């Protein structure tokens, strides 16, 4: 390396740099002359005891390297790379994984006497000092071991910025400390270990730290596969990485430096002159590869993966296992060298993305965010939306499309979510079942129901809130939980919530993971839950991820698992961290969950275990899934501003919501609900493909009660398409009767 770089001085001679050089030359020359007069054995003893260092007193980073390494994120197969995170692009490899010619080249280029000295080459250092002072030749004097010490101390993530800067400051004290540390390392570590560590930390230019990153950056290959010419080129870069880099610097200078390394390898006996001549004659052939960094780097050919990656990053910085602060956790992801196998299933993700963009294109202001969750683990299998995860600018007036990095699927960072309509009726049914009511709980549901809640204006009756059914002919009449849920009868569930207490319904939703991100919703939940009668109709904002996970809790018979984006997290030392394990707890009695599922068979066109389903709002699901046991619920917000569907089997729960994330006054329209239903059902189909069908366990008789009437035949539905009633023609009605 250049003398200025090695000794920490400036390359261009200045009065200060010349003074430092002369002073250091005097110190080192005196040391060299003093020890040169000693017999060999005494010299070794002097090096071991006097000048030099104590291994136990070394900084932790030198004894146990903690150099920055990139973290790798894989899909759930453990093979498909999603992206990497790094501040410093490097990955450690064992010495056996580095081509022999690469090891020989770096020794020849940087420290020919590496295997002969004890960490400090006083003879070589004096020669370099004299040459630099007298000739300005820029010869090097630091050994590989000394360079390794400097590289570790200036990149150690556990040190402060000031401490890292001090590792290269131009002081005699720093240089003597470097000498002492190098000798201490040589007393304890073998030469091959030091060489391996050096090769894993040296900077090769173009953002590549370590030989593994450099091999990929310049030649798109592993370091074990480097040829002699390639190894000589890389070894030559270390002296002046940015200047010699054939990608970012001077390719001719890189080739000239390659020739120097080849000549040095001949002098060390590593190769013959003929081998050097043959390698020198090779044309410089690069095969550079960019290394993905961060969530924005996932989009190449895999649009939509960035939203999952972003969710994982947000989850990561909330985990105390990775540091005491968000900044420390972020640094751990970018510098910690973790191997993260995520929960993302590429096949389910591909179907989800295809379905979401099949409903609305990327340039549509309306969106269909979709999430898929595994019951019993909380593992997030897919997250899709018709947006590009990108920092690219959008056209004027298009705040959030086609490009965005906002968490439209999971919520947070100002995204509160969307009203999911009657999907919230599930929480009312669960609260009622938990309170001792049965599935047979009956009520003669009217077209409109005056309640005890005060209200004014449209939707009120004599100063009271007075909700109605969207399709009275199909919904009104005596209902139990089965057909009340199947036909999505508003007045039945408003009445039921009033009997149970709306505060219990709100608490149930929160227990299953519904988070109130909108300030008004959070305030209502705390201060006015007892009077939040409309909550059962899904007026609170939620997200597809929260909704899918809540229904997954019911699919898992009452076991709630926190949403989890990882299968495993492995530290650089091979230790698997517990942070990747599911975090689950029972929040519902299993029998209560089974009873709710029995009623949730009705909306999707299937039959309850007790034969009480007589109509549903999403009957196409049964056909799409070819009769596989499934349950679910549709949802429409007021004036069809949003349209939703959640479906689940024992293996997967999927939720989709059609909405305009930027303009809640833009109603998506009731007609889109059938497309959302179809999309969710097909995502479920992909998720369960190849798996045996699993039946739902029927609830006990105690929660069934005694139905007060036999199963009805479906009345002819209103031919007009209405929210929560996708039946639109006589043919479909007749199919459902059959």
Automatic annotation (TrEMBL):
Top-rank taxon: Bacteria
Pfam name, any one: Transgly
Record GO terms (molecular function): carboxypeptidase activity
Basic and acidic residues composition-biased segments: 709-723
Residue numbers spanned by region Disordered: 691-738
Residues in Penicillin-binding protein transpeptidase domain copies: 371-676
Reaction catalyzed: [GlcNAc-(1->4)-Mur2Ac(oyl-L-Ala-gamma-D-Glu-L-Lys-D-Ala-D-Ala)](n)-di-trans,octa-cis-undecaprenyl diphosphate + beta-D-GlcNAc-(1->4)-Mur2Ac(oyl-L-Ala-gamma-D-Glu-L-Lys-D-Ala-D-Ala)-di-trans,octa-cis-undecaprenyl diphosphate = [GlcNAc-(1->4)-Mur2Ac(oyl-L-Ala-gamma-D-Glu-L-Lys-D-Ala-D-Ala)](n+1)-di-trans,octa-cis-undecaprenyl diphosphate + di-trans,octa-cis-undecaprenyl diphosphate + H(+); Preferential cleavage: (Ac)2-L-Lys-D-Ala-|-D-Ala. Also transpeptidation of peptidyl-alanyl moieties that are N-acyl substituents of D-alanine
Ranges for domain Glycosyl transferase family: 81-265
Keywords associated with the record: Carboxypeptidase, Glycosyltransferase, Hydrolase, Multifunctional enzyme, Protease, Transferase
Name by which UniProt lists this protein: Carboxypeptidase
Lineage: Bacteria, Bacillati, Actinomycetota, Actinomycetes, Micromonosporales
């Amino acid at each position: 390396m250049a003398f200025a770089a090695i000794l920490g001085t400036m390359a261009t001679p200045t009065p200060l740099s010349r003074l430092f050089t002369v002073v250091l030359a005097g110190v080192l020359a005196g040391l060299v002359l003093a020890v040169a007069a000693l017999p060999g054995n005494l010299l070794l003893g002097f090096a071991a005891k006097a000048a030099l260092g104590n291994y136990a007193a070394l900084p932790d980073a030198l004894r146990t390297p903690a150099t920055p390494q990139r973290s790798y994120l894989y899909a759930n197969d453990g093979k498909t790379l999603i992206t990497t995170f790094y501040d410093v692009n490097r990955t450690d490899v064992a010495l056996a994984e580095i081509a022999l010619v690469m090891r020989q080249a770096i020794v020849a280029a940087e420290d020919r006497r590496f295997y002969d000295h004890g960490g400090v080459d006083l003879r070589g250092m004096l020669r370099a000092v004299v040459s630099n002072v007298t000739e300005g030749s820029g010869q090097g004097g630091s050994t590989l071991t000394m360079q390794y010490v400097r590289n570790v101390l200036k990149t150690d993530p556990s040190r402060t910025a000031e401490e890292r800067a001090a590792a290269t400051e131009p002081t005699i004290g720093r240089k003597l400390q470097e000498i002492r540390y190098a000798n201490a390392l040589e007393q304890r570590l073998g030469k091959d270990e030091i060489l391996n560590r050096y090769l894993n930390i040296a900077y090769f230019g173009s953002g590549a730290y370590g030989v593994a990153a450099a091999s990929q950056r310049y030649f798109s290959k592993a370091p074990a596969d480097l040829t002699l010419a390639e190894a000589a080129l890389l070894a030559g870069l270390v002296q002046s990485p940015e200047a010699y880099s054939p990608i970012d610097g001077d390719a001719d200078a890189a080739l000239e430096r390659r020739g120097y390394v080849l000549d040095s390898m001949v002098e060390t006996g590593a190769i013959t002159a003929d081998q050097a001549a043959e390698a020198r004659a090779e044309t410089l052939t690069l095969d550079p590869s960019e290394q993905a960094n961060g969530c924005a780097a996932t989009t190449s050919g895999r649009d939509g993966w960035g939203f999952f990656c972003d969710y994982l990053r947000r989850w990561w910085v909330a985990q105390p296992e990775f540091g005491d602060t968000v900044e420390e956790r972020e640094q751990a992801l970018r510098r910690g060298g973790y191997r993260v196998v995520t929960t993302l299933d590429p096949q389910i993700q591909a179907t989800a993305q295809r379905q979401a963009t099949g409903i609305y294109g990327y340039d549509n202001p309306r969106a269909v965010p979709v999430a898929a969750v595994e019951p019993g683990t909380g593992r997030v299998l897919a997250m899709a939306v018709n947006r590009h995860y990108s920092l690219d600018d959008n056209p004027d007036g298009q705040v959030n499309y086609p490009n965005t990095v906002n968490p439209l699927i999971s919520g947070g960072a100002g995204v509160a979510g969307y009203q999911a309509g009657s999907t919230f009726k599930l929480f009312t049914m669960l609260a009622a079942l938990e309170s001792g009511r049965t599935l047979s709980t009956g009520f003669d549901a009217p077209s409109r129901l005056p309640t005890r809640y005060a209200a004014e204006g449209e939707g009120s009756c004599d100063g009271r809130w007075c909700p109605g059914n969207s399709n009275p002919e199909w919904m009104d009449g005596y209902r139990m939980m089965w057909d009340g849920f199947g036909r999505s009868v508003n007045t039945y569930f408003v009445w039921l919530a009033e009997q149970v207490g709306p505060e219990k319904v709100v608490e149930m939703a929160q227990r299953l993971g519904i988070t109130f991100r909108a300030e008004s919703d959070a305030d209502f939940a705390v201060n006015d839950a007892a009077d939040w009668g409309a909550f059962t109709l899904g007026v609170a904002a939620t997200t597809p991820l929260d909704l899918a996970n809540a229904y997954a809790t019911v699919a898992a018979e009452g076991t709630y698992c926190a949403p989890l984006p990882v299968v495993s997290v492995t530290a650089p030392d091979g230790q698997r961290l517990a942070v990747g394990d599911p975090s689950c707890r029972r929040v519902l009695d299993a029998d209560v969950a089974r009873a709710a599922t029995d009623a949730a068979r009705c909306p999707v066109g299937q039959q309850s275990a007790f034969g009480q389903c007589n109509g549903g709002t999403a009957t196409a699901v049964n056909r799409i899934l070819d009769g596989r046991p499934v349950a679910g619920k549709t949802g429409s917000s007021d004036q069809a501003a949003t349209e939703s569907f959640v479906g689940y089997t024992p293996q997967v729960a999927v939720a989709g919501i059609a909405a305009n994330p930027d303009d809640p006054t833009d109603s998506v329209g009731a007609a889109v609900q059938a497309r959302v239903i179809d999309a969710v059902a097909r995502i479920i189909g992909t998720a369960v493909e190849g798996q045996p069908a699993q039946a739902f366990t029927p609830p006990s008789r105690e929660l069934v009660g005694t139905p007060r009437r036999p199963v009805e035949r479906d009345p002819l539905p209103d031919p007009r398409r209405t929210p929560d009633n996708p039946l639109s023609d006589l043919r479909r009605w007749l199919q459902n009767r059959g």
